[in-house]
Amino acid sequence: MTNSESVKRRKELLIKVKDFIEEEGGIAKKEDLMTLGIDYRIILDFVDLGEIVRIKNGYYTDKIDRFSETELVAKLFPDGRLCMESALYAYGYISRKPYGWSIAIDKNTSKSRFKLDYPRVIPYYTEPEVLELGSTEIEIEGQKFQIYDKERLICDCLKYEGKLERQDFKECLQSYISDEDKDICRLMEYARKRKVLRKVQTMIGIWI
Fold this sequence. Notes:
single chain; alpha/beta; five-stranded mixed beta sheet; three-stranded antiparallel beta sheet; 10 helices; 45% helix; elongated
């Protein structure tokens, strides 16, 4: 193959990769790129020359500024649930924006998924049967996220009180108590399942 033919072939492969990334919604996994029949060394060469971007190990896009932080999290962790500070902030239960994204995830998922320089993601590894409890959906900046409903969220905050800043913990309880949309029956049901019934009764029950 002559040099001009090699250059032409390389351009064709790059177009093929970029078209595939576009078809995948802007992010493609390594194993999916491999289905194109392109030598992985060529893909690494595209990365080294800045023609495509490695977001994290095994995940690629065509340009670094294509996604906002919110879009990246939504696309990289569609199987996770916003929890703890991230969910509290999404519901307006705390006023201070968290530094990073708290995400509940199946404990059997690969830990390497969270080796990110940006954005900062804090995983909460969870038993598969517990992961689904109280799961619902919310839209943030035009992106759909799975998130725990308010009652599951409050039970988790009580269960993992020590992981929260004191200010955030107090604020979230006060916000829930004053929330006209709260569901006390559901809260008690989750409290039994999350084994925080006594805490709910003593820290919230006296105010409602």
